[in-house]
């Protein structure tokens, strides 16, 4: 199962999700990260006017909360200047979903 949500990498959320599954699932948590410059560039592509500053502030606050509130076992994957395919390949590798002979394919 793949579950995505901004806060799903926080320890208490991971605990709630695994408890809801009713067994002992193998959980691989990934936090996608980027620099403030990248976040500002991305937000400015979809937000306009005075809303940009507010969105950037909320984004920075949440990034700090996620980074400081995640358990150590959460993998951090940098997304700056990377394609979706590169990021996905790294996550798939972390999840160990591909057979060994295909892991170098990107």
Explain what you see.
It is built from 4 helices and 2 strands; from the N terminus they run αβααβα. The protein has a two-stranded parallel ribbon. Helix 2 packs across helix 3. The chain is mainly α and 106 residues long.
The largest sheet is:
2 strands, parallel
Number of DSSP E strands:
2
Strand-and-helix sequence, N→C?
HEHHEH
Rg (CA only): 16 Å
Distance between the termini: 22 Å
**Helical region count?**
4
Strand order of the largest sheet: 1-2
Q: Stretches where pLDDT falls below 50 for ≥5 residues?
A: none
Q: Based on helices, strands and strand pairing, what is the structural class?
A: mainly alpha
Helical percent range?
40-55%
Labels describing this entry:
106 residues; two-stranded parallel sheet
Give a quick precis of the structure.
The chain has 106 residues and is mainly alpha-helical.
Q: What does the secondary structure layout of this molecule look like, with pairings?
A:
Elements: H1 11-21, E1 30-33, H2 36-46, H3 51-69, E2 75-78, H4 84-95
Parallel strand pairs: 1-2
């Amino acid at each position: 199962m793949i579950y995505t949500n901004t806060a799903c990498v926080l320890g208490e959320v991971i605990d709630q999700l695994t408890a809801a599954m009713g067994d002992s699932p193998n959980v691989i948590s990934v936090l996608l990260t980027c620099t403030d410059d990248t976040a500002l560039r991305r937000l400015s592509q979809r937000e306009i006017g005075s809303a940009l500053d507010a969105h950037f502030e909320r984004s920075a606050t949440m990034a700090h909360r996620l980074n400081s509130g995640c358990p150590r076992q959460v993998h951090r994957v940098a997304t700056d200047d990377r394609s979706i395919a590169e990021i996905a390949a790294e996550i798939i590798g972390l999840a160990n979903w591909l057979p060994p002979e295909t892991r170098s394919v990107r």
